Fold:
Amino acid sequence: MAKPRILIIEDERALSEILEINLQREGFETSVAQDGSQGLRLAQASVPDLILLDLMLPGKSGLDICRELKTSPVTKHVPVIMITAKSEETDQLIGFATGADDYVTKPFSVKVLIQRVRRELRRGEAGGEEDRDTLTHLGIVIDRVRHKVTVDGRELVLTPTEFRLLEALIRRVGRAFSRNELMDAGMGEDAVVLERTIDVHIKSLRKKLGDHSGLIETVRGLGYRMRETPAPATDENDDADEN
Structure:
């Protein structure tokens, strides 16, 4: 079996060497780029299975590189984990808004980072299998062939937009989506609608999900994500109109 290939885009040589050594020890194949432009070239020339991307890079920033990776048809499917010394929530939200799949802040445990790498790779594998027929998550089953959704065996009546929104969220459980991203997923890139329209659709979708409504979590200032675990009983999920 081929080893998963990880591209490390990191200008701090000591850190990139530590990551290389530990990832190789865990059975990964690695390559390193010292700046964003080199990273883009390597990613395009030999598409990796996952990219570790530093936010603060010389020349183009990690955010710009992430945006380019996620808009390229060659690399848009590749999971990106951003690494940064910044810890402000705003930076995390911006990172997710550009398409990053996960986010770790220095200093971090290499062991924890490798766990996240494995998690993202598992998600990618599961997504590839489920593209052909069904997506499942905590009792929610999406039958893409028959365009049917059930929750604990109960069939839901969803609008086409609600169906596409739920599908987008379940495809990437745990990933925060901006309202703009969800508009593209639910209505198409050419649709001309207000961002608040997504809030209305999410509110309706939550209502139809019933006891599972808490799985759709509001990410303040950005949009929404599908929770990886059931929501605590105290969660309030009727806040679709909040920023």
